Description:
Blueprint: E1 3-9, E2 26-27, E3 30-31, H1 32-42, E4 45-51, H2 55-61, E5 67-69, H3 76-83, E6 92-97, H4 105-118, E7 122-128, E8 137-141, E9 144-149, H5 156-159, E10 163-172, H6 173-180, H7 197-204, E11 208-213, H8 225-245, E12 249-250, E13 257-258, E14 263-264, E15 269-270, E16 275-277, E17 281-282, E18 287-288, E19 293-295, E20 298-299, E21 304-305, E22 310-311, E23 316-317, E24 322-334, E25 339-351, E26 356-357, E27 362-364, E28 374-376, E29 381-382, E30 387-389, E31 392-394, E32 399-400, E33 405-406, E34 415-416, H9 428-441
Bound molecules: uridine-diphosphate-N-acetylglucosamine and calcium ion (CA).
Amino acid sequence: MTTTALILAAGKGTRMRSSLAKVLHPLCGRPMAGWVLTACSDAGLTPTLVVGHQADRVRDTFPGVPTALQAEQNGTGHAVACAAEVLPRQGTLVVLAGDTPLVRGATLTALVEAHTRTGALCTVLTMKVDEPGAYGRIVRGATGVERIVEAANASVEELAIDEVNSGMYAFDAAWLLDEVIPHLVPHPPKNELYLTDAIEAAAAAGRLDAACHDDADELMGVNDKAALAVATKVLRDRINLGWMEAGVTMHDPAQTYIDATVSLEQDVTLEPGVVLKGSTTIATGTQVFAHSVLEDATVGPDCKVGPFARLRPGTVLTSRVKVGNFVETKKAVLHDKVSAGHLSYLGDTEIGAGSNIGAGTITCNYDGFGKHRTEIGERAFIGSNSSLVAPVVIGADTIVAAGSTITNNVADDALALARARQKNLAGKAQDIHRRNKERAEK
Ligand code: UD1
Ligand code: CA
């Protein structure tokens, strides 16, 4: 029997001060609630999302994940009530928040195992923190945990408690949904139904288990942009450590930014300031030099990219390709050993193996209405500062003279010269200098 995880993701996240719902904020390229979904999938849990604020957008972000609607957000207990209809009554129900992106699958597996072992009605994961801030406080009495008190409702003594609620629980599903949730009562200051009241109910029945997790960072809830940055850093470190263990060399992992969706091979080298986004893949032996940004790019083996290169979506470098400083590529396929060393824009183009793209080469792919393609054959030599006005086809083994503006196709083996012929006028410079000097002295 699979265990369901209900992920509460209907809140606006007021403290984020953002027009984007909190649970959609990306961390290392994956939306916040997406990290919780990944942890669920790692733990073999079947997720259901409670959506409300920006419900359509949240649904569209996680296609295939079943959802329940909480049209008005009247608290975490109310969120569970809104999903009660669609949830199974057998076995264990895990309840999580969509704003805890650091939780690991293994922790959820351990939570479910502990819950099953003890036969509790509720198992709550707690943690000890230096600054309990807005977290719900775990109130312990003679017999163990008695209840959770929200910071907004806590006494001065309770506010000093450093053991707090992670917002992650395993429940006896039928008990929670049929015996507790229907009886929740609203709390001040916002008249919300608190899921945390279920903890008190389980304690009263003598069947509450509380497990204090030793890695408090992993359970952190993200409520504002400062916490978002802290959580992003933790995920970045985890991602980078994973790639270093897989054989990627990083000169400074603290300054290397890799989305969760990127894929790398061993002996890739990344210099500081490198940003790898989206579906980027990089094969073995490739070096990405400082401050290069790659998004949805496919880079083959033994390439050299950057420093200061920008590979935009649809870039493919097959193998041993060189893309140097201030070169931007988009929907560009550069075959083996192509070299584009400096200051170029290569968009909507395919460039044959062995071609050399001179400094300052621009594919003029946009005419104000549509995008057009530039095809360059193998072993072509494109001289510096050439403008290739698309659509245009430049054959194999061609030479385009430096400074050319190419508007017509160039046949294989041809030399294309498309610039004004140079005239040298003997002594003329001196005449002009003299005249300018006289004018200035008048
Ligand atoms: C909640 C807990 C608190 C715990 C903390 C852990 C309650 C009452 N408080 O507080 O004890 O220490 O999490 O991080 O449960 N949500 C809905 N519908 C709502 C309200 C919230 O779906 O009506 C969702 C939010 O989108 C969010 C999650 O529930 O993902 C938690 O809500 P939030 O407002 O962040 O609760 P906290 O104040 O952090
Ligand atoms: Ca929270």
